Amino acid sequence: MDTSLIAFLIIIIAIIGSRIITDHANKKLDTEKRAALFDLFSKGRILMYIALVGIVVIFVVSLKFKLLDPTISFLIYTSLLFAYVFFTSYIAWKRLKGNDYPASYIQSYIISSVIRIVGLVVFLALIMIR
Q: Closest Cα to residue 105, out of 13, 23, 17?
């Protein structure tokens, strides 16, 4: 099987798996808590997306213009992604805990986030191998 196809399947599986975990956790919340989620995470969401896009753009530019060895670029990129996941998960944990969300929901949220990012890292690693 082609490496690109495997990479694509992994990212799709990670996204779907992450979404299933999130949806399952959301169904366990009461209506009030579920409605409050949007407001809770809307503040700062755009900044988080800008940071993530920035990390990806820096990685792609580094590879495209051969600024660093591809392996070093990938290691830096992976480190930045894990730092991003840790930072965003920590912020989410603080917000969810501060607003009295159930521990099971918080755990599901963090697991879901980690699955998405790991899927992305594996996807890019497999594309690099190609």
A: 23
Q: Which of 83, 123, 91, 84 is nearest to 109 (CA)?
A: 91
Crossing angle of helices 103-129 and 70-98, rounded to 10°: 170
Query: 3-state DSSP call for residue 30?
Result: coil
Cα→Cα distances 42→21, 38, 46, 92, Å: 20, 6, 8, 11
Identify which of 81, 96, 108 has the alpha carbon closest to the alpha carbon of residue 27. 108
Structure-block tokens of residue 83: 């730092």
pLDDT digits (tens, 9 = 90+) for 91-112: 989 999 999 999 999 999 999 9
Structure pTM? 0.75
Query: Which DSSP symbol is given to 29?
Result: S
